[in-house]
Amino acid sequence: xxxxxxxPALELAQETGKVLRWLKRPGDAVTRGEPIVEIExxxxxxxxxxxxxxxxxxxxxxxxDVVPVGTPIATIVTEAGPPSTPEREVKASPLARKLxxxxxxxxxxxxxxGGRIAxxxxxxxxxxxxxxxxxxEVARLTLASPKARRLAAERGVELHLVRGSGPDGAVLAGxxxxxxxxxxxxxxxxxxxxxxxNVWRIMAERMTQSWTSVPHFYLVREVxxxxxxxxxxxxxxxxxxxxxxxDLLVKLVAxxxxxxxxxxxxxxxxxxxxxxxxxxxxxxxxxxxxxxxVVHAADTLSLDQIAARREDLVTRAxxxxxxxxxxxxxxxxxxxxxxxxxxAFNAIVNPPQAAILAVGRITDRVLAVxxxxxxxxxxxxxxxxxxxxxxxxxxxxxxxALAELVEEPLAxxx
Length: 414
What we know:
- With about 425 residues, the chain is an alpha+beta fold.
- It is about 30% helix and about 25% strand.
- The strands form five sheets. Strands 9, 12, 15, 16, 17, 18 and 19 form a seven-stranded mixed β-sheet that branches.
- β4 and β5 form a beta hairpin.
- The N and C termini lie far apart (about 55 Å).
- Mean pLDDT is about 80; it is low at about 80-90, about 130-140 and about 180-195.
């Protein structure tokens, strides 16, 4: 008996993943949950864990191969005998089954990352299936991903002139922008030429999409950070942990979100979806661009637990060791550039999230204290919001609650 290792779909827009290297060789013993292969997605390099305990069997995708999501890339042999390819047991949410029935989709054909198929997985499958319709005959004869066909149609690129970087020369979405802008793309210029990595290029595309499609608005609040500074010093002394201001803000943001759930929401398919889980993303700069690993259930964690989680995520992000679960499920993002001496900035919303908090440095400023001017440590918080999911009044209430917690963080202990 064998269990397939599937190229996972970590997000709605992802269509392929690239195998970077196998951490195990065929025949090696593996345990369920043990990292066995590194892959590169549109966002980041992640480690894929074994779905079962046994031995690594046949490996069908080698290092460097670009594989469509949902495709088996190896098998885990759980009993003696030659590897087989069992029919995948379908686990799906009720909404996923309903949507599949409406579109005539077989759930066995829908990639679900090796786990339970969600409504978003079915939506992604339906969109990919529609992506190739209506193209010219010569384009249909060219191997290409649905996204690549759509981009080619939008930009007037002839697919049969583009040299693809995918399996069997398939044209991927990343090849089309290069073909549209580089004069030698049709002659086979490699994607990523010009010093831009795939992660950076994808980041640029998504930020452009967010900036041009999400109606942003911004709220700015200067807050007295003297109590925050004292709190950090006290907690670090009590716990012995390396507590950063980002850790404190994650704790405070999680507390504010419990009282203002509209900021813990998404604009999805013309509706506002409020999330029960408070999973906070942290914008982390890496050599290839920007990634957003997630502190899950932040409202349930102590400060030293948040600090340990943040340190682990940042370390693995910078070394390319993030796991799929590390970048899934973010509901709200914190981006802190204070350590770089930045006073304030406007961040771009990370769809489908409703908001992102931009944090500036803590520095001495003249503030009114008891009706008199005084020099106090202060910081500027800038809240960027998707106006489709939240209005100005609700956003202001959230930012006000957060500012109060920053100025009186010990209120959390009461």
